Amino acid sequence: MSKFFTSQEKKSIVAAITRAELKTSGEIRVHIETYCPSSSLDRAVFVFNQLKMYKTKDRNSVLIYLATDSKKFAVLGDVGINTVVPECFWESVRETMQQFFADGRFVEGICAAVEEIGSKLAQYFPYRKDDMDELPNDISFGE
Prior knowledge:
This protein is α/β, with parallel strands linked by helices. It has 5 helices and 4 strands, in the order αβαββαααβ.
């Protein structure tokens, strides 16, 4: 599955995560796999827990989940985010991704979503001088 993106495309996604996290104390991860055996949101919750993304001080991590062959994706924020943001907070991020994905532009869609998440989270979880990178910025891959 890690072959879905080229080495350069993976670097572009990681660079987008790194840039976005300079705007916010929030943490962003991207997980990609081929097949989604359930709803994309249910699978994203499973992956979120598997990656232990809940282990951030402010519970302010976000997972972008993509199942390439199943053509499913989800954006999932932790409880620290979802208790302070409006109900449809993630809708514009999903719409952005959908527009790019419809054209087969997955890397651009993920990078645009990551940048948007960083900007949106900065309103609620601004970057702090003492901020520590609590989760890896690399892409995780499933089956």
